[in-house]
Every structure is written in structure tokens, then in C-alpha cells.
Amino acid sequence: MSQPEGTTQHGSGWNVAAACIEPLYNLFVGATEVVLTIDLPYVNQSRIKLACPANDIVELYAETTRKITFEDLGVKHRHGEFTCYHTRIRIPVPVDENRINTKFKRGVLEIHIPRLK
Questions:
Q1: Which residues of the chain have pLDDT under 50?
Q2: Which of 32, 33, 39, 51 could lock onto 24 through a cystine, CB 3.0 to 4.6 A?
Q3: Distance CA 110, CA 25 (A)
């Protein structure tokens, strides 16, 4: 993912200029579907935007309900704050991005995407 000129992208996935951070996620490739779980603490479901800009990419953008500091998350070695999550996740197998099913509960977004045969 290319960054606009003048922005700083730390190795942790934290974009200082945009006050955005890459969320933690887990990707599971099953026989019939791909399951993607994404940790989104301090997010309301109505603030989640999910897109598939390419047939092998899932892009997520979610605004937080308040400014979050790294200290809020128990991180002591980094300072700063962010107000959104953003990530682009490559899916390693062909999927049907038109049949995405999502569930959001307790700050975790679960995405089910059927595999193409």
C-alpha cells in the first residue's frame, strides 16, 4: 500500500498523519470458505466500511468511538493516539466477494467469504 507523500508509516501499521492503525486480524482458509476475524476495539458496527477493491483483497476502514492512546491498549513503549483502523488484507485463494457475510460482536468483526470452486 503506497502512502501519500509526507505521511509517516511505522512498521507497526500506524499512520501518524492519518491517526490510523492497522488492526490485528486472523485469516483462516477452509475447504469451503475463508474466515477473517479482525479485532476492532472501541468501534460501533455502523462505523465499519468493508470493500473488495480487487478479487483477492478485502479492505476495511473503521472509525473509533473516541481517540485511543497506545496506553489505553496496555502499550508502554509507544506514544500517540489514533481515531480509526485501516487495513488491506490479501486473500490467498479465489473467493466470491459478492457473497460476504459479516458478524460483529464485542469488538471483533468476523467475515465469512465463500471460496470459488
A1: 1-11
A2: 39
A3: 10
